[in-house]
Amino acid sequence: MQVALSGKDRVPVEPAAAFGRRARIGFPGQDGGDVQKGSGRPLAEGAGPGLHFDSAGSSFSGWIRGRRMVEPERQQKGTNGRNGSSAIVQQVLRAFDELEKEGRPLGAAFLTLRAGYHALGEPDRMRLFLEMLRRVEVSKASVAPLIEVLTQCDEGDPRWPGLLADLRRRVLSPRLRRFRKLAHIPGGLKFILDFRGDLLAAQREGGVELGALDADIVFLLEMWFQEGFLYLEEITLDSSYRQIELIKNNDMVHPMTRIEEMGRRLGKDRRCFALYHRLLPFEPVIFIEVALTSGLARSMEEVLAPAGEGSRIDTAIFYSINNTQNGLAGLGLGWMLIGKVVDYLRGENEHIRTFATLSPIPGFWKRYLRPVLEGRKTDARLTCREVAGFFSKKGAAMVRARSEGEAGGDEAFCRALARILGEEQWVRDEELRRSLEGPLKRATYFYLTEEKTGRGKPLNPVAAFHLGNGATVAPRHIHFLANPTPRGLQESCGVMVNYVYDSDWLGQIRRTFQWFDLMEVRGIFRRR
């Protein structure tokens, strides 16, 4: 989940110190009223009317003690109006054009643009993206004469630097200029992030090349999400209720149904760190949950159980990392966040020497192993015959007996295995579990290390993120039934994996992000 932040060819911007002046500078505007407030789900079960809780300033621990809370208002999203959608697309484009005109008030144009955009359904948003590429672009006529002069000019000519500067100015994307103006308006940065999230989704699902439009936005985001703009903050039981709720609502790796569950994830040896942008201070852009343990944690049960009294903590387990803004995908913030937290924890506790994850394996069962077992045509390197070879004779006989399937060769065996793993009852059969453990771990390791995309990266996206960022994995790091919840079983037959980071990795991050050590770290207090 990575393109490193680039320091080259950036558009000049004012010093970061100007952030002290609220929305009066050439940076994305701050708008406390336009901050996304979570998913709109109830804060907790049992929240009743007539109670009061100051969610903005009160601490989560205060809420736990007082049990005072209210049902939040549902967040209303934009409608996907169909009638007159073509007219709305044109209205949005006209509002986008207004941003280019000097002396015009930008606020009204932004409100029109945002309202119109939110009224569009997915097909019409695709039309908008394509129209932006076609209509809002540098024209050939605007650059052809200058290019002709340049080709006839010698590099030693005194005019050469000025001609190049003029060419750079002329080829600067008009979309980029408008997005930059848009970001000066309160609420503009959040809109741009949501816009890019939709753009990436459209590009994945529609197969249409929208890279030029995306490149304009990425160019700006790489400037805005760097040193001076970002800070790290620890989320604790003393953090505001609002921040706790945002973490709870945005944890998509290990979702929670009740906010009280956050109590198990925050404490002396259970930590949470969030990365914030200075102009989006009410909503983290990405956060990570950490368990401090004695040795590698091999299951979610170990992660959520507090460390025993007197146990020597020597390991930090990252078990949930969530990007709350889809529009920031590909900027390397996850990699940098892990590195900053590693650096912080090492400074806090010198005994912590091992840093690893306990990660899910999304797609392993439904999109990978099950199709192989059922004999469907796939691009997988793993074959039914190899899966059957993972089992001992005794284990294979047990699978056949438990499934009550037909006798036969490897294909019949794999169909029987698919029927067993497709139901959750096998988890309660101790003898069957023992027969399945070894083969499932071998199949998982093969999936993580041998199955590749067309670009040679690991097929599993989580593996691609961690292995691509310097982590390692070995057979001993594959853990059977580490997450035996219904979701864990449907996702990966309950199997999880440790990705282990070595000591050289932090230096690599420092070399990539030269401003790494300058990032501010905030917290209620520093633990000792």
Automatic annotation (TrEMBL):
GO molecular function annotations of the record: malonyl-CoA decarboxylase activity
Family annotation (Gene3D superfamilies): Malonyl-CoA decarboxylase, catalytic domain, Malonyl-CoA decarboxylase, oligemerization domain
Official protein name in the record: Malonyl-CoA decarboxylase (MCD)
Malonyl-CoA decarboxylase C-terminal domain boundaries: 228-502
Residue segments, region Disordered: 24-51
A single BP term in Gene Ontology: acetyl-CoA biosynthetic process
Domain Malonyl-CoA decarboxylase N-terminal: 163-225
InterPro entries listed in its UniProt record: Malonyl_CoA_deC, Malonyl_CoA_deC_C, Malonyl_CoA_deC_C_sf, MCD_N, MCD_N_sf
Source taxon at top rank: Bacteria
Coiled coil region boundaries: none
Species whose genome carries this gene: Uncultured Desulfatiglans sp
